[in-house]
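Worked example

This section walks through a single chain of length 185. The input is the sequence exactly as stored; nothing has been trimmed or padded.
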Amino acid sequence: MRLKVVPIMFRAVTATPTPFDSEAPLGTRRAIIRRNPDDPQEIEMVEAVWGSDPRFSGGSIYRFVRSEGKTFPSHRCLVPASEFQLTVGKQRFRVTLDGGNFFYLAAVWEPAMGEWPLCYRIVTVDANPEVALHQERHGAIVERRDVLKWLDRTVPESDLLVTPPARTFVVEEIGARPVQTALAF
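Given that input, the structure is written out below as tokens.
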């Protein structure tokens, strides 16, 4: 198996996990990891636009796809992330794995068609207890040890696309002021 970094638009796509912002604007580009459609023995990293082609959905762009009752027999990909961010009202939160490891978000990609570029959608699951305090769903987490299981379809979706157990995540408000925990004299 070869890992190939494909240069896109005169810059190299890097594997460095970055925060995934669910409020990112339309057209936001990110690196995705997938099996090369021209050489399935190769895993590649390419840049893709977040959100589906609106021509096939009545003008709507879908950024997420629910996992329940669905199979993903092809076009699976991963989005490397150090955290995911969410917004509730005027508050913004960062969600990281307890322990600080990076992870991947399960996703599916769609080929470029016409003027719409290569794109992807995040696969979602019911929120785990920490995230459920803020929203009902979040991206399905694929841990590093399960990357090939997702990309190669060696494990049923129902085994990988599960709600993480309690105490999987640390949720912190972005920009919150520190809370004083002791008296100062």
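What to look for: The first strand starts at residue 2 and ends at 5.
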